[in-house]
Amino acid sequence: MVAYFRQIYEVLFTIYVGMRLTLKYAYTKRITVQYPDVKPTIQQRFRGIHYYEIERCSACGLCAKACPVDCIYIEKSGVRKMDKATGRAVGGAMTRYAIDYSKCMFCGLCTEACPTECIKMGNVHDFSGYDRKSMIVEFTDLARQGHRTVQPYWMQNRKMADWVTQLKKEWQDRAEPAREHMKQALVQTEVSVKKSADDSPKTEG
Ligand code: SF4
Ligand code: SF4
Questions:
Q1: Which atom of ligand 1 is nearest to the CA of 67?
Q2: Is 198 helix (H, G, I), strand (E, B) or coil?
Q3: Residue nearest to atom 4 of ligand 1 (CA)
């Protein structure tokens, strides 16, 4: 008998909790952001389309190994070594660094595995495509054009809100100092690596 009334109590209490939440949100003021005319608020730790610094990528493949869905593709023309003095990788050319966003689940494990922190989760949240193939982002092609991340189709439109123009400029300015180094990462360079001041002699070679 006690169990019977307890069950009734639990059912009524569950309905009460659910309805309380429903009613709370039913009468709160609705907020509609007129995106893309109005800039959306992206949280600082949002994990969007990656931001890739090709000149600091040694093509070690650790990000691809860490990826649980195998959606990172890396190709190089030869061994790439980190130059500690400049913080850039030299040697073989980066011939391909691509991520298939039809598979990526934005877990961020690739960024944690990267020893040079050259792959980061970016803040592009609205990348789209017309087929699965267009969801593969070729970051080496982007680097060739001086970009570190993808620009959604609608951002390539000439008529854009002010905040989009500003955002695109910020992206450009951020990549500008490294543009030459980005291009160099796409071609084979000297393998001899400059040593940093604090390197001991035995680490040379
Ligand atoms: S975020 Fe996760 S799923 Fe996407 S490429 Fe990185 S490791 Fe793979
Ligand atoms: S992005 Fe980082 S982990 Fe991936 S290949 Fe380049 S250096 Fe290695």
A1: 7
A2: coil
A3: 104
Lookup: tokens for 126 = 């609205």
Ligand 1, pocket-test mutation among 51, 65, 109, most atoms within 8 A of CB: 109
The tokens describing 105, both together, are 């689940």
**What mean pLDDT comes out for the span 72-95?**
93
Return the bridge partners of 124, or none: 49
Supply the range of the domain harboring residue 145: 48-191
Instruction: Using CB atoms within 10 Å of the CB of residue 167, give its burial: 0 to 12 exposed, 13 to 18 middle, 19+ buried.
Output: middle
What is the maximal distance between C-alpha atoms in the chain? Answer: 85
Q: How far apart are CA 100 and CA 94, in angstroms?
A: 17
Residues 124 and 84 in one domain: yes
- pLDDT (tens digit per residue) in 46-68: 999 999 999 999 999 999 999 99
Q: For residue 42, how many other CB atoms are within 10 A of its CB?
A: 12
Pocket of ligand 2 (CB under 6 A): 57-63, 74, 113-114, 116, 118-119
Q: Is residue 37 part of a domain?
A: no
